[in-house]
Amino acid sequence: MKKIKLNYILIPLVVVLVSVVGSYFTSSGMDWYNTLKLPSFTPPGSFIGMVWTIIFILSAIATLLIWNKTVHDKKFKIIIIVLILNAVLNVLWSWLFFYQGLIFVAIIEMIILEISTLLIIILNWRKQILSSILLMPYAGWVIFATYLAYMIWSLNK
């Protein structure tokens, strides 16, 4: 009988935890968010939820590929540290933007989130190209979300 690697449980569990905590902060701030002026190109909440679900699935797969298919050397440890930082930043954004209503601070934080996402893609490109490709929609979405947040801040300052 083949033994199941613990990382096949822990990595998706961490991704779900990030999703659930971020979702909690987001839903807690919806009353405030619904009072804001929004740009005409703001996607509906259901679309945003669908995009984040896809991003979290792709992130879990990418992280499993990194963990299982990459040599566990110094560079691997740096990638894992940046992945953990990225998860924390992901939740922090929801807390800053929705829970605290600190739009401008959330925009600055999103720029750092984007840098961490791009750093993971770049650091892992030669080691595990598929995982880097799977993280590209995440990087693209964060760029769009940063622009959207900037426009919301501009309309409501």
Question: What can you tell me about this protein's structure?
Answer:
- This protein has helices spanning 7-28, 30-33, 45-69, 74-99, 103-124, 129-156.
- It has 6 helices and no strands.
- Helix 1 packs parallel to helix 4 (74-99), helix 3 packs antiparallel against helix 6 (129-156) and helix 4 runs antiparallel to helix 5 (103-124).
- Helix content is 81%, strand content 0%.
- The protein is mostly helical.
What is the global morphology? Answer: elongated
Mean pLDDT: 95
> Total strand count, please?
0
- Residue stretches low in confidence (pLDDT < 50, at least 5 long) are none
- Return Rg in Å: 16 Å
Oligomer state equals single chain
Number of helices: 6
In this structure, how is the largest beta sheet organized?
none
Helix-residue proportion? over 70%
Determine the structural class based on helices, strands and strand pairing: mainly alpha
Distance between the termini: 61 Å
* Element-by-element helix/strand order: HHHHHH
Share of β-strand residues: under 5%
